[in-house]
Structures are given as structure tokens and as C-alpha cells.
Specification:
- The complex is a heterodimer.
- Chain A is about 35% helix and about 15% strand.
- Chain A is an alpha+beta fold.
- Chain A folds into two domains: about 5-80, Ubiquitin-like (UB roll), CATH 3.10.20; about 90-155, [2Fe-2S]-binding domain (DNA polymerase, domain 1).
- Chain A has a five-stranded mixed sheet with strand order 2-1-5-3-4, with helices on both faces.
- In chain A, a hairpin with a 2-residue loop joins strand 3 (about 50-55) and strand 4 (about 55-60).
- Chain A is globular and about 50 Å long.
- Chain B has three domains: about 5-55, Uridine Diphospho-n-acetylenolpyruvylglucosamine Reductase, domain 2; about 65-170, Uridine Diphospho-n-acetylenolpyruvylglucosamine Reductase, domain 3 (2-Layer Sandwich), CATH 3.30.465; about 180-285, Enolase-like, domain 1 (2-Layer Sandwich), CATH 3.30.390.50.
- Helices cover about 35% and strands about 25% of the residues of chain B.
- Classes of the chains: A alpha+beta, B alpha+beta.
- Chains A and B meet through strand 4 of A and strand 1, helix 2 and helix 6 of B.
- The structure holds flavin-adenine dinucleotide and FE2/S2 (inorganic) cluster (FES) (2 copies).
């Protein structure tokens, strides 16, 4: 069984690991690095709970191999807060009640923070499209959209 | 879910990837976006002893028009197609389809090469490639090209040998007075098509159809090329009546199976309706009436 030495920059810190070929990125993050903010929901590439930002793009970390992330920059929900200050999307989700049970929230935060990097002023339609790969069973999305709009305004 | 064990190989050049495929023969599989392959491995619907990752092979990620041909590199991600101005302005059939494929997160990884090479009849881009008259460039020991409408042999069975890599898709730049459309019925974001129709038309001087490409997604074990319907339209004015007739002929060629997405009758009827809609849209976009 082939093992691979990999190095990733996760939330700004360089981390090394020796991984089996089949180890999934989400398991590297949760079980090797012990950062459990990233959730596993469906485990079948449908729900987006496991979303992390990989080299600038939000992706489903349950459907990427850890070894494929070698040399990449990863941001997880733990990396959003900077110097004790919440990221505007995190603030938006608290202010606008963008969560209930919170299971989908880490994925939602990663997708929407990446959206706002690319588009400072997304329309409601664009926000809804951006989060269409992130399922929320609780909120009905209304307050999630409001939370992202709040963050967009704050970041402008 | 954890895939059965395999050995991962990262190819840094196309030659290295080809060498690895040759060395491991039937035990090896190409990994591009991974959005079909990894879920299959996780569900243990398939397993391969060796995965050859071509994500870092340089020079497989581009969208360019050259000498009457649109060339798209196999590793071009769906997200890049979605943002491409050339696609948005000149290939509405693709611009229609890409946002309907999976979801934005999957489109950040999934590639056009993987979509057409996968061989799943639920994939949206094969029918589009057939309608556009595209050709796939395939590298093995030698380079060869295969017309999209000759590529699909059966369920997950294509003209690709295990030792080959699809490197490029070539699409003839549509002449003036051309238009295309893709219409897809699905239950929700991230679902494969209940039925979907790809249409690409070119109209002649007086508005009659000069060339027509029509193909259906998820209407059988492979994408279905509606050859009769296309032939029927050529030379005719694309009006309400001829479009209705062509759509009927296309639906007659479909051979869907019943599943959670609907019965055979329903899917055939949807294929007819969607083909008619795509034809109308394509005619309008071609500047016809
Ligand atoms: C939730 C979800 C919803 C989806 N919905 C849709 C949908 O609505 N419509 C749709 O069309 N697809 C859908 N897909 C599939 C998605 O579009 C895949 O990205 C695509 O089918 C495969 O492309 P890939 O780059 O991910 O390829 P991979 O998964 O890496 O590979 C797929 C297959 O093609 C082979 N292959 C890949 N690239 C090459 C190459 N260059 N040369 C030779 N062989 C190659 C691989 O060996 C493998 O057998 C969905 C996927 C998910 C997870
Ligand atoms: S856990 Fe990855 S998409 Fe649901
Ligand atoms: S808050 Fe419960 S799933 Fe979204």
C-alpha cells in the first residue's frame, strides 16, 4: 500500500502528513489534523456540509483525495476568524439567524465566503445559485440569503 | 465511506500518465475531476488498483477558437466553461447546459473531459457534443480522433481503450445563422436529467434548415442521436409543424427505462416536449422566426 508524504497550507499554517492513497481530504482535516469544524453530512457528494476552500474554490472535501491537496492552500471554517474577529459571513449568520441546528453552517460559510471573494455585490439569485450545492434542512434558506447580503454590505 | 485500497499516481506530464496507464493496464483508471469516479469508488460500485491523476498535467486546460475550430482541453473545469465569454457568446447550447450540471461545488472540480469520457448516459455533455458535431482527440501510443457520435458504445463503454487519455474536444465553429439550445428536466439541483435534448441548427439563406444536430440525454444506455429527426428537418422551414414532427421522431428513438425519475411513457413524452422546446429556441437564436 503506497503512502504519500504531503504538505498543505491549512488556514495559513503549513502541515505535513503521511497519507494512504485512499484517504479523503475531509478525513485528513478531521481525523489527522483534528479540526472538526468541517462536517460530514451525506458522504455521497450531495450535501456540501464538508465544503472547504481549496486554492480559492469551494469544493466538497469528501470527494477529493487528501493526496490531491498536496501543495495546496486550504481554508476551513476554523480559518475564517482573523485575530479574534469573526469573518463578515460569520457575523451575518449570527445577526440574521442564518442557522438553526448548525450542521450545514461550516459548509455554507465556506461557500459564501468564497462567493464574496469573487463577487462583492451578489444578487439574491446569485447567492441562491452559489449555495445550491449546500443543503440546509432547517432554515429554508431565507435567513441564509439575508446573512450573506449582510456580509456583502459589510465587506463593501 | 472509504474506497477500497488503491495506489495513487500523480502524473506531471501527459507522457508520464500514458506510461503509467500502459504499465498497469486494466488495473488503472484515469482520475480527472473525480466527481463521478470518487463517489463510485466510495460506494464500492467499482474499484481499481491504480488511479492515475491528470490534474497536474500542464496544457490540458484551455478554451480557444482557432481556424474554424473551438478547442477545449480535457481538464477544463465546468466552472471555467461557465465563466467563459466565448462559450457565453457563441455556444449557447453549452451555456444553457453547464449551470444545469450538478451544483457549483461539483462544477469547481468536474471537467468536460471527464463528463464526455465517463460513459454514463446521465451525463449532459455527450449529447451536446453529438449535436455540435464534435470530435474527441485521444492519446495512447498514437494520437487519434473519434467523432462524438461514434464514441459511445454502451453503458460506461466508450471507444476509449484503458491505455488512452482523452486530451481535447474539437467543435466546428458554427457558421452564421446558427443556433443551439439545451433543455433539461430535472427534479432538483444536482439531479441527473429525467430527459434532456441538445439541438444545434444552421439555417440557410431563406430560413430553411441547412444542418441539424439533435441528441438526447438519459434516454437509453448511451446518448441517443436523433438522426432521422435531423435528416427530416434539413431543407425544410423550421415552423410549428415541422418542429412538432421532428420532436416526435426524436422521442421515438429514445429508449429510457423506468426509475424514480418516471415511467418510460413519461420520459418519452418529456423527450418529445424538450426536443420541441430546444428546436424552437435554437431557431430563434439562429435568427429564424
Ligand atoms: C452531486 C452530483 C451531481 C451530478 N450531476 C450531474 C449532472 O446533472 N449532469 C452531469 O453531466 N454530470 C453530473 N455529475 C457528474 C459530474 O459532472 C462529473 O464531474 C463528470 O461525470 C465526470 O467528470 P470528472 O472530471 O469529475 O471525471 P472523473 O470522475 O475523474 O472521471 C470519470 C470517468 O471518466 C474517466 N476520465 C476522466 N477524464 C478522462 C480523460 N481525460 N481521458 C480518459 N478518461 C477520462 C475516468 O477514468 C472515469 O472513468 C454529478 C456529480 C455529482 C457528484
Ligand atoms: S459530506 Fe461531502 S457532500 Fe455531503
Ligand atoms: S441549520 Fe440545520 S441543516 Fe442548516
Amino acid at each position: 500500500m503506497a503512502m504519500h508524504k504531503i504538505s498543505v497550507t491549512i488556514n495559513g499554517a503549513v502541515r505535513e502528513a503521511e497519507v494512504e492513497s485512499r484517504l479523503l481530504l475531509v478525513h485528513l482535516i478531521r481525523e489527522v489534523f483534528r479540526m472538526t469544524g468541517t462536517h460530514v453530512g451525506c458522504d455521497t457528494s450531495h450535501c456540501g456540509a464538508c465544503t472547504v476552500v481549496l486554492d480559492g474554490n469551494p469544493v466538497k472535501s469528501c470527494t477529493v483525495l487528501a493526496v490531491q491537496a498536496d501543495g495546496s492552500k486550504i481554508t476551513t471554517v476554523e480559518g475564517l476568524e482573523q485575530g479574534g474577529k469573526l469573518h463578515p459571513v460569520q457575523e451575518g449568520f449570527t445577526e440574521k439567524h442564518g442557522l438553526q441546528c448548525g450542521f450545514c453552517t461550516p459548509g455554507m460559510l465556506m461557500t459564501t465566503s468564497a462567493l464574496l471573494e469573487r463577487n462583492k455585490n451578489p444578487s439574491e439569485q446569485q447567492i441562491r445559485e452559489a449555495i445550491s450545492g449546500n443543503l440546509c434542512r432547517c432554515t429554508g434558506y431565507v435567513n441564509i440569503v439575508k446573512a450573506v447580503q449582510y456580509a456583502a454590505e459589510k465587506m463593501r | 465511506m472509504i474506497p477500497a485500497a488503491f495506489d495513487y499516481h500523480r502524473a506531471d506530464t501527459l507522457d508520464e500518465a500514458l506510461k503509467l496507464l500502459k504499465k498497469h493496464g486494466d488495473d488503472a483508471k484515469v482520475l480527472s475531476g473525480g466527481m463521478s469516479l470518487l463517489p463510485m469508488l466510495k460506494l464500492r460500485l467499482a474499484s481499481f488498483a491504480h488511479l492515475v491523476d491528470i490534474n497536474r498535467v500542464p496544457g490540458l486546460d484551455y478554451i480557444k477558437e482557432e481556424k474554424g475550430t473551438l478547442r477545449i482541453g480535457a481538464m477544463t473545469r465546468q466552472a471555467a466553461l461557465e465563466r467563459s465569454d466565448v462559450i457565453k457568446s457563441k455556444y449557447p447550447i453549452l451555456a444553457d447546459a453547464v449551470p444545469l450540471i450538478a451544483d457549483p461545488l461539483v462544477r469547481n472540480r468536474g471537467t468536460i473531459g471527464g463528463n464526455v469520457a465517463n460513459g454514463d448516459p446521465g451525463n449532459d455533455q455527450p449529447a451536446i457534443m453529438i449535436a455540435l458535431g464534435a470530435t474527441f482527440i485521444v492519446r495512447g501510443a498514437k494520437e487519434r480522433s473519434v467523432a462524438a457520435n461514434q464514441f459511445y458504445k454502451g453503458l460506461y463503454d466508450t471507444a476509449l481503450a484503458r491505455s488512452e487519455i482523452l486530451t481535447e474536444i474539437r467543435i466546428p465553429v458554427p457558421p452564421l445563422k446558427s443556433g443551439g439550445a439545451y433543455t433539461k428536466l430535472k427534479r432538483k439541483t444536482g439531479d441527473f436529467a429525467v430527459a434532456a435534448a441538445a439541438v444545434q441548427l444552421t439555417l440557410g439563406k431563406y430560413g430553411a434548415v441547412e444542418r441539424a444536430g439533435i441528441a438526447l440525454t438519459n434516454a437509453g444506455l448511451t446518448p441517443i442521436e436523433a438522426v432521422d429527426a435531423a435528416k427530416y428537418l434539413v431543407g425544410k422551414m423550421p415552423d410549428e409543424k415541422t418542429i412538432a414532427e421532428a420532436a416526435k421522431m426524436a422521442a421515438a428513438k429514445s429508449a429510457p427505462s423506468a426509475d424514480r425519475r418516471g415511467s418510460v411513457e413519461y420520459k418519452k413524452e418529456m423527450a418529445r416536449v424538450l426536443t420541441a422546446r430546444a428546436l424552437h429556441k435554437a431557431v430563434q437564436r439562429a435568427g429564424g422566426s
